[in-house]
Specification:
binds fe (iii) ion; alpha/beta; 8-stranded parallel beta barrel; binds zinc ion; two-stranded antiparallel sheet
């Protein structure tokens, strides 16, 4: 099982990300090249990158399966504010260059939000932007993430994902990142995951899927909310998620947890303990641990 979580990219860059992933017992990971909410980015140090690559090699982390996630601020769908639209395009281009420098093959992107323009026009803007950004020289593949459909978010249906991919010129450089919480919230039943994969395969092609985000959901199917929950504590449930992570058709696909941190007490606002080490163990064992949150508090108090 190729499984990890999103990790931070701190002062020591990619080395810090690898160390954090290893502390969770992961064999892959996903990172942002800075804070996901902003676009402040530091220059990449070749020494640190080399050190990170060595650390991955020593620990059997295949760099070809490591994922980078673009910041949420990028919106390729809306071109009403030309300055913002150009900023998004330039930033994505730079993000692809950073991935290339770091040796990362996949960059996950939220397709965008239409905010005030026709959905079809918004989809066409995404296509136009992608066709300008992706060139024959591009080495990192952009993965369109399936979204929950919160607000005016695009990419919450396979139809919209297909619409974009169909119009991208260089199809070998575009892919899909599934997200189980988003799919559930968008109305796809995760209890019938093989049916979903069949549909995706017939409609777009399973070969486009290069990553899957593994999250439970706080909300019921088709509620378009996008609030992640710890594995087994949400509406998708442990059994369904376990079937997804062990599905033979996605065996080679990296699985990335983006579940929430757990706080001191259930009603505390603070979310301080990363759940990933224990969630990974739980999924590998195939056994739900109802005391997960309590165990986390004990584990990190030591
Ligand atoms: Fe995402
Ligand atoms: Fe996600
Ligand atoms: Zn989400």
């Amino acid at each position: 099982m190729i499984i990890g979580s999103h990790v931070s990219y701190g002062k020591d860059g990619l080395v810090g990300s690898v160390k954090e992933a290893l502390s969770y017992g992961a064999n892959t990971f996903m990172f942002y090249t800075g804070a996901p909410q902003n676009t402040i980015r530091k220059a990449i140090s070749p020494e640190i990158t080399k050190e990170a690559h060595n650390l991955m090699k020593e620990n059997n982390i295949d760099i070809n399966k490591v994922i980078c996630h673009a910041p949420y601020i990028i919106n390729l769908a809306n071109n009403l504010d030309k300055r913002k639209y150009d900023f998004s395009k330039n930033f994505l281009k730079e993000e692809l260059n950073r991935c290339e420098e770091l040796g990362i093959k996949y960059l996950v992107l939220h397709p965008g939000s239409s905010v005030g323009i026709e959905r079809e026009q918004a989809l066409n803007n995404i296509v136009d932007a992608l066709n300008k950004i992706i060139t024959p020289e591009t080495k990192t593949m952009i993965l369109l993430e399936t979204m929950a459909g919160k607000g005016t978010e695009l990419g919450s249906s396979l139809e919209e994902i297909e619409y974009i991919i169909d119009k991208v010129n260089l199809k070998e450089k575009i892919g899909i990142c599934l997200d189980t919480c988003h799919l559930n919230d968008a109305g796809y039943n995760m209890a019938c995951f093989d049916d979903f994969l069949d549909m995706l395969d017939n409609f777009i092609g399973l070969n486009y899927v290069k990553c899957i985000h593994i999250n439970d959901s706080k909300n019921l199917i088709n509620t378009h909310k996008d609030r992640h929950e710890n594995i087994g504590f949400g509406t998708i449930g442990f059994l369904n998620i376990e079937r997804i992570v062990t599905n033979k058709r996605l065996e080679e696909i990296p699985k990335i947890l983006e579940t929430p941190y757990v706080g001191e007490s259930d009603d505390s606002k603070e979310r301080i303990y990363p759940p990933y080490k224990l969630e990974i163990e739980m999924l590998k064992k195939g056994e739900f641990e109802p005391n997960l949150k309590q165990m986390l508090r004990e584990y990190y108090k030591k």
